Amino acid sequence: MIVIEQAREMQRYAEALRRKGKRIVFVPTMGFLHRGHLSLMEDGKQRGDCLVTSIYVNPTQFGPAEDLDKYPRDFDTDCRLCRGVGVDAIFFPSNGEMYPEHYQTYVDLGGVTQNLCGLSRPGHFRGVATVCAKLFNLVKPHVAVFGKKDFQQLVVIRRMVADLNMDLEIVGLDTVREPDGLAMSSRNTYLKPEERESALSLSRGLKLAQEMYAAGERDAGVIIAAVSRFIAGHPHAKIDYVKICDTTTMKDAARLDGECVMALAVRVGAARLIDNSVFGEPLLV
Amino acid sequence: MIVIEQAREMQRYAEALRRKGKRIVFVPTMGFLHRGHLSLMEDGKQRGDCLVTSIYVNPTQFGPAEDLDKYPRDFDTDCRLCRGVGVDAIFFPSNGEMYPEHYQTYVDLGGVTQNLCGLSRPGHFRGVATVCAKLFNLVKPHVAVFGKKDFQQLVVIRRMVADLNMDLEIVGLDTVREPDGLAMSSRNTYLKPEERESALSLSRGLKLAQEMYAAGERDAGVIIAAVSRFIAGHPHAKIDYVKICDTTTMKDAARLDGECVMALAVRVGAARLIDNSVFGEPLLV
Fold first, then answer.
1. What would the pLDDT profile of B147-196 be if each residue is shown by its tens digit?
2. In A193, A257, B143, B184, which residue has its Cα 20 to 30 A from B71's Cα atom?
3. Do B153 and B267 belong together in one domain?
């Protein structure tokens, strides 16, 4: 396994692989890897000849009042974990390498970025789309693997790849959960023991929504009200949003007719947790 | 020579060439080709194994009050001209192919788009950057060749390519001129015979600026005033802008210390003409 810090070196490495006809699989991350990331890598390992991951806490996707500075980092452990799942190359650039002097280009999307986390975190998806466009051009993957926990991010990336005619396949994999149902997240490290029960209100709220859907409920407002009430009943939980959206447009859905997703963002102590579930799909909590 | 209308087919064609180790050279155009375009293609032909051009009047770089509908088109003549200079493939997509339903992704740049044509034509460079990003992903060139007549466009494309880590070389070639000095442009076709003399005020104004520079003048305001007065003395000429900018930032320069460009945009009858000259570089008028 090699660690590459320079953008040009990453690009040359990728181009050399492509010239040899090798298939490149890419798992972009912000590091502090958990079993969710590792499951993406294990899956990715089966999809090509060379598995590349990036570890980069991208500043342009954090708002000024967000947790950029205290976002957890542990590069040595990440390296060990990557080696364990067969990563071939880690791209680990500095901010100066990614956003040098005179930097001024951003990728902006419309509707799919304007609801949910796009409302709560202005500029977030601009930063996500931009850094992914850059990483795709540097790593030159044939396939990139993302988790479905960041559902809107997956929709945004797929939309950008289609719109800008980027020649790669985007794979989305199911959210990996703790045994108690909590979605894996690097930000779970912010949770205090006494906040755990409140943190579980997300996955349990999604389960409640799926049960209502299975029982025939199709009015989004009714389901949202029930789930909001359930989450708000937990002492450390502060709802950011509880929404039901069309999975293509990410616009609020009034009724659950086409494919819809319930998306949650809830602050529990110092952590802002997100979780989601597409109606009618299995939810393993 | 083949003509490709489908985006996916263009991409497959390009990827097959790359797999064979072929070097792809790309000249994007809006068609209605003149000797300026052909000089880019002739130069490009020497730079690789396969010469691809695109002919696409990109709607997203035109403002609502601009000449999108009447922009001149002549695909049959363009094909003949392309064949004559050894073009291997023309990419000729429809608007539906380039901007299908749900399309919503745009590439935005900062400072370098905010002066000159970025002021006169809001959204223009967003459209240019976006369509070039798409075309680069479809044609997969090793090198793309642009004319320097659209100087700001060249700066914008170079900035985008560097910022988004696109793996291609951008080449800028000197403006090709009519024998009387008028810069080649598809929009010259809008000029009436009696407007020709006024149209020459651009190249002659640039010559005046270079003469002042050669004589030691370094105050941008003095040169701008002289050139503006000269152009305004022509009966059909309406100045859009007469500016002197730093070639890296495209910000107005007060003094000609670093590398600076004089950039002109002048309406002559129905035509909006642009021209430019970098101080100290030869100007063949």
1. 999 999 999 999 999 999 999 999 999 999 999 999 999 999 999 999 99
2. B143
3. no
DSSP A23: P
Task: Give the residue on A whose Cα is nearest the Cα of B8.
Answer: A165
State the smallest CA–CA distance between residue B147 and chain A in angstroms: 22
CA distance linking residue B279 with residue B285, whole number of Å:
14
> Per the domain annotation, does A55 fall within a domain?
yes
Q: By residue range, what is the domain housing residue B112?
A: 2-173
Q: Name the residue among A2, A160, A37, A69 with its Cα closest to residue B164.
A: A160
Helix (H, G, I), strand (E, B) or coil at B274: strand
Nearest to A105 among B18, B21, B107 (CB): B107
Digit-coded pLDDT (tens) for B2-48:
999 999 999 999 999 999 999 999 999 999 999 999 999 999 999 99
Estimate the crossing angle of helix B35-45 against helix B75-84, to 10 degrees: 40
- Which value does ipTM take for this structure? 0.94
Bridge partners (DSSP) of residue A147 are: A173
Angstrom distance (rounded) from CA B194 to CA B50 = 42
Last residue within a domain, chosen from B173, B206, B239: B173
Is A134 in the same domain as A270? Answer: no
Spatial neighbors of B36 by CB under 8 A, at least 6 apart, are B147, B149, B175, B176, B183, B184, B185
8 Å CB contact of A7 and B165: yes
- C-alpha span between B209 and A164 (Å, rounded): 41
Residue B135 sits in the same domain as residue B6: yes
DSSP B19-79: HTTPPEEEEEE-SS--HHHHHHHHHHHTTSSEEEEEE---GGGS-TTSSTTTS---HHHHH
Note if A37 is an active site residue. Answer: yes
Task: Write the pLDDT tens digit of every residue in A95-118.
Answer: 999 999 999 999 999 999 999 999
Question: Mind telling me how many Å the CA of A70 is from chain B's nearest CA?
Answer: 27
A149 falls within a domain: yes
Considering B142, B173, B204, which residue would you say is the last residue of a domain? B173
Show residues of chain A in contact with B167, CB under 8 Å.
11, 15, 137, 140
**Cβ <8 Å between B110 and A107:** no
Residue B179 lies in a domain: no
* Residue A64 CB neighbour total at 10 angstroms: 7
What are the b/e assignments for B72-81, b being 16+ CB within 10 Å? Answer: eeeeeebbeb
List A34, A37, A142, A234, catalytic entry:
A37
Residue B106 forms part of a structural domain: yes
Give the global pTM: 0.95
Q: Are A74 and A94 in contact (CB under 8 A)?
A: no
